[in-house]
Amino acid sequence: MEGRARVLGDDINTDYIITSRRKRESLDPQVLRQYIFEELDAGFAATVQSGDLIVAGHNFGCGSAMEVAVTALAGAGIRAVLARSFARTYYRNAVNNGLWPIVCDTRGIREGDRLRIETGCVRNLSNAQTIAIDPLPDVMREIIEAGGLAPYFRQYGGFRIGRPA
């Protein structure tokens, strides 16, 4: 996976990702994508390109447990969020909805850097930096690769743990 870095800071809460008033208007990810991060930058959503990667600091996705904070990003074509740490609920919502939550040291990544996510690392193609990634358990990786928890269950009929591949 390769994309352009869109850099945010620490403590990006779910209401910064998509305000709760927007989910009262619609739950359609294609509608919500127009409003991502509007509380931080009213013009942000208009500049997002499919394939962009969100890059943040500590505690990304803190606040409420609203799943729409994941689906709004996915609706905008964002396939991964890289952060130094995630709120646990957001992390699980990301996995369950097929969005890659990548834990790594994001301090050297700048706005607009070209990033390539590889097995075990992120390569910053803009400055030749290689950043180690905290590994995901196999089952979480499989859920994301299937497109989320519901598609995973449709594909496997339950968790594959302890079953032959």
In words, what does this structure look like?
The protein has one domain: Aconitase, domain 4 (Alpha-Beta Barrel). It contains 8 helices and 7 strands, in the order βααααβαβαββββαα. The longest helix has 9 residues, at 88-96. The mean pLDDT is 94. Strands 4-3-2-1-5-6-7 form a 7-stranded mixed sheet. Helix 7 crosses helix 8 (149-156). It has helices spanning 14-17, 20-25, 29-32, 44-47, 68-75, 88-96, 138-146, 149-156; strands spanning 2-7, 53-55, 80-83, 100-103, 114-118, 121-124, 129-132.
In short, what is this structure?
This protein has eight helices and seven strands. It is an alpha/beta fold and 165 residues long.
List keywords for this structure.
single chain, about 160 residues, alpha/beta, Aconitase, domain 4, seven-stranded mixed beta sheet, 7 strands, about 20% strand, globular
Give the biggest beta sheet.
7 strands, mixed
Q: Any idea of the CATH class?
A: Alpha Beta
- Counted beta strands: 7
CATH homologous superfamily title = Aconitase, domain 4
Q: State the strand order across the main sheet.
A: 4-3-2-1-5-6-7
Number of helices: 8
**Overall radius of gyration:** 15 Å
Mean pLDDT: 94
Outline: globular
SSE run: EHHHHEHEHEEEEHH
Distance between the termini: 25 Å
Category by helix and strand content: alpha/beta
Q: Bin the strand percentage.
A: 15-25%
Q: Unreliable runs, pLDDT <50, ≥5 residues?
A: none
Helical coverage, percent range: 25-40%
